[in-house]
Design goal:
Largest sheet: 7 strands, mixed
Helix content: 25-40%
Shape: globular
Distance between the termini: 31 Å
Number of strands: 9
Structural class: alpha/beta
Radius of gyration: 15 Å
Strand content: 15-25%
Length: 192
């Protein structure tokens, strides 16, 4: 079970502060997210960087991670998801759990629950919060090409998941995680 961290965002609504470098518990947010994936049972962990990639590589400790830079990161999450799934090709992974760097309220318990929904290379699962689909998302390896083909703009896998909604195993995680995003200056209170 591989982990995929999408950490390329430039934090446009945060005044251009790259999300991967936002401080959380004294370290960059990217480190916290990688630890969440590992502690949730994922390995290897692939990380997609974009905005300030050189600074993230320098300031965040990402040992053992497969780091990919998405030169097209400004076009949205879709291109980062495509880059991350491409980096997994040939890895031997049967599935991947995808986590977003700007959701520190999602911890290892939620990742482990979603990962436990893996049944085959065609598995499709997502965390749910009060019955509403959210992150992290599990994509069986047989799904990667379809997800990549539909990923565009800031929507990531949303179109693919909507198309295959009846095939998704929803895993309730509202009791172990909070699915807020760090998108605006007001959201930074979650990092304190």
């Amino acid at each position: 079970m591989a982990g995929l961290l999408l950490a390329a965002g430039g934090g446009r609504r945060l005044g251009g502060r790259p999300k991967a470098l936002l401080p959380y518990r004294g370290r960059p947010l990217a480190e916290h997210a990688v630890r969440t994936l590992r502690d949730g049972g994922c390995g290897p962990v692939h990380v997609v960087l974009g905005a300030a990639a050189a600074r993230v590589r320098q300031e965040a400790e990402l040992p053992g991670c497969v780091v990919t830079e998405n030169p097209d990161w400004a076009s949205g999450m879709g291109s980062s998801l495509r880059s991350g799934l491409a980096s997994l090709a040939g890895s031997g992974a049967d599935a991947v759990v995808v986590l977003l760097v700007d959701q520190p309220g999602i911890g290892a318990a939620a990742v482990a629950r979603v990962a436990a929904a893996h049944r085959s290379r065609s598995s499709l699962a997502a965390a749910a919060y009060g019955g509403r689909r959210g992150h992290p998302v599990l994509l069986g390896a047989d799904r990667w090409a379809g997800v990549s083909a539909s990923a565009s703009g800031d929507r990531g896998a949303r179109a693919y998941l909507r198309e295959h909604e009846q095939e998704i195993t929803l895993v309730e995680c509202g009791d172990v995680a909070e699915a807020y995003d760090i998108d605006t200056p007001a959201d930074l209170r979650h990092l304190e």
